[in-house]
Amino acid sequence: MKFIAFVSAKGGTGRTTLAANLGVILARAGHRVLALDCDPQNALGTHLGIPPGLRLGIAEGSSPDEIIEYLTAQRGEVPCIPFGTRDRDDLQQAESTLLADSGWLMRRVLDVVPSGTELVLVDTPAGERVWTEHVLEMANVIVGVHLPDAACFATLPVMAAMLERQCRGRELKPAVWHVLNQMEPRSKLARDTEFLMRRHLGERLVPCPVPRDPVVGEAWAQQLPVALHSPTTGAVAALRELSEHLLTPLVDLQRHTAKVCR
Amino acid sequence: MVKVESSFSQMFIPRKETIRNSGDGYAFDVAALLAAVGGEQMHYIEFNSVRRELETRQRWPLLHLVSELLDQPERSADVAKPVSLHKEGAAI
After folding, report:
1. Is the ipTM of this complex over 0.85?
2. CATH number, domain containing residue A207
3. Residues on chain A touching B63 (C-beta within 8 angstroms)
4. What's this model's pTM, rounded to 2 decimal places?
5. Owning domain of residue B25
């Protein structure tokens, strides 16, 4: 089981949308995928057919049996464990638990994720939140999601510092990719931001930015993955290319593991 | 990755057959051009890339300031190169 975490230093970059739609594309490519929402906004499930407002979720308050039963009953393309709707006191309690017990989230996930799951796509809140820190600790692949604008570029040093802290001291380093989302090729600022991001991030900025496309939002509003709603659009083509790119280090890892085992 | 060096621009002597980046400066274009023309014209392409960066920084002062921050080694975005760091294997 491998964990792919979607992170960003600022909100509104499309982490959740990317995670959900990549999950569907990867599932349709034959991977056994699970979506896991570790963002208190609790929005990942709404991309995958789960009605908003559901209390059940990965945050404290639902038993593992309840979550497993709910997963079994889901009929969507990608099973999803929501964060769960929580009030402010519940959230504070859950975050206190995480702060006090660094292994809580990992144990919780291993208790509820079905055996045979190949890829777990994890959504996280924007910025340095305790949920993000714990997800990053178990991630095999980290995907930084950015918009091609000045606000996102300005958060790049914060993102770099956050990832550096998370990777420091880890024996097994995660692969780190950065993705430009909602690229607008007609915008000079967007093109210049992409140029400078590539200058600073080099090969870690994946070569296939996801273009801005209104069908992505329309698909979400209709509770459909964009790959089903508008399968021939440029955004879906870019997401397919991106899905292959993100798995490259995992394929290399599997080859390496197979070699070691022989 | 291209670094701005004053000595480099002083050494640059333009010739008629200068090869230009596409104007948008996409890395793909640079890679394709390098593959097409080999190393001989690399200086011209590097020069255009440097010029593009200078123009971009002048056009967007905020991006320039952030780039300055990222150029400091202690704030580098250069963390965890993909692929190679997975060669040791990872399992959960």
Report:
1. no
2. 3.40.50.300
3. 150, 153, 192-193, 196
4. 0.80
5. 6-86
